[in-house]
Design goal:
With 66 residues, the chain is an all-alpha fold. It has four helices and no strands. The protein has one domain. The relative contact order is 0.10. The mean pLDDT is 87.
């Protein structure tokens, strides 16, 4: 999650504390609005960049992208 916070901080031009608050807000929103069985997936994708990359590749393959 530190990598995501750093990226948000850099891209938005805000400090790390503000970026963490923004990331936490988005994560909480996603968990609240997704079916309960996907809440753990949100945590996995946020804390494990490799898992997120693998998931995006899989989705891309399903959608016919390479």
């Amino acid at each position: 999650m530190d990598e995501l916070i750093k990226l948000v901080s850099q891209q938005a031009g805000i400090d790390a504390t503000q970026a963490k608050k923004a990331v936490d807000t988005v994560v909480a929103y996603a968990k609240k609005n997704l079916p309960p069985q996907y809440a753990g997936l949100v945590d996995t994708l946020i804390t494990n960049p490799k898992a997120a990359q693998d998931m995006l590749k899989m989705l891309g393959g399903m959608l016919g992208q390479k």
